[in-house]
Amino acid sequence: MSVSPEATPLIPPMRRLLYVAAFLVFLAGLVLFVFPLRTDEFFAWTVNPPMTAVFLGAAYWSSAGLEVAGARSAGWASARLAVWPVFIFTALTLGVTLLHLDRFHFSPNTALTAQIATWAWLAIYAIVPLAMLVISWMQIRSRRPSLESVAAGRPVLPPALRLLMVGIAGVLLLYGVALLAVPVPAATWWPWQLSELTARAVGAWLVGLGWSAAQGQFSSDLPTVRPVALTSVVFVILQALALLRYGGALTWPSAQAIGFVTVLLAIGVAGAWALALSRSPVARTGIA
């Protein structure tokens, strides 16, 4: 007898937390992606150049899709692919914030909207990682061990796709950690100029995305990979739009710019491939 890995239902507090997180990152993405030249008025810190703002905005918006997909999941097996990357990203971003508090809009000389955004930012990144931990503990406690043990199985993604996802995860995780740990030297490998703060902010995103890719390739059920796949496709589409708007900031045709586009293409291919598999008749019927 086989049991779907969705056997453990998603508890209501986790579903609500994911929806709230999706709304918050949508707002952050709205400011960064739509108003990249006005971060001194509407964001927690002034982001320069605009290409950095739209890059971060695209990441926020794509993660909103990940969180909504996770919240709409029938069970924990799918939702956890959204939960752990979100927890890692928010915890890392809290650390980045505390390291660079001097860059944030706490001064009364900054716009009131920027001050409000800054305090909201600090509150969100202090609360969300803790809430994720507590509610994840509640979610895991609700698990039905007998069903989960039966549900666990071998990864079902094709070996070539898994290899591609492992490669993407390795690049994103290694470079993300480098940006977090040694932002100045690591930023020289980025295709446009980054400050210490923006390098670490980008690094937090790369680690979160890399973790998501690493998790997804272990999926033992095709539909569970859908949130990660959808996020990857949306991320690449938004980054393509960002390049159309501010691609002149990249040092073309440098190795950094070519590497950046190559990684984006790899993420897009992996995401589209996994999304197609997750929507296939085999995935819907559960027959392999």
Salient structural properties:
mainly alpha, 12 helices, disordered N terminus, disordered C terminus
Describe it.
There is one protein chain. This protein is mainly α. The chain has one domain. It contains 12 helices and no strands. The chain has helices spanning 12-34, 39-42, 50-71, 76-99, 112-141, 145-151, 159-181, 183-187, 196-216, 226-246, 255-278, 281-285.
Ordered list of secondary-structure elements with their pairings:
Elements: H1 12-34, H2 39-42, H3 50-71, H4 76-99, H5 112-141, H6 145-151, H7 159-181, H8 183-187, H9 196-216, H10 226-246, H11 255-278, H12 281-285
Helix pairs in contact: 1-3, 1-5, 3-4, 3-10, 4-5, 4-9, 7-9, 7-11, 10-11
Total tally of structural domains = 1
Assign a percent range to the helix content. Answer: over 70%
Q: Would you identify the regions where 5 or more consecutive residues have pLDDT less than 50?
A: 1-5, 146-152, 284-288
For the termini, the CA-CA separation is 15 Å
Mean pLDDT, rounded to whole units?
A: 88
Number of helices, counting only DSSP H or I runs of 4 residues or more: 12
Query: Quick one: overall form?
Result: globular
Instruction: From the alpha carbons, calculate the radius of gyration and give it in angstroms.
Output: 19 Å
What fraction strand?
under 5%
Largest sheet, in brief, is:
none
Total number of beta strands: 0
State the secondary-structure class: mainly alpha
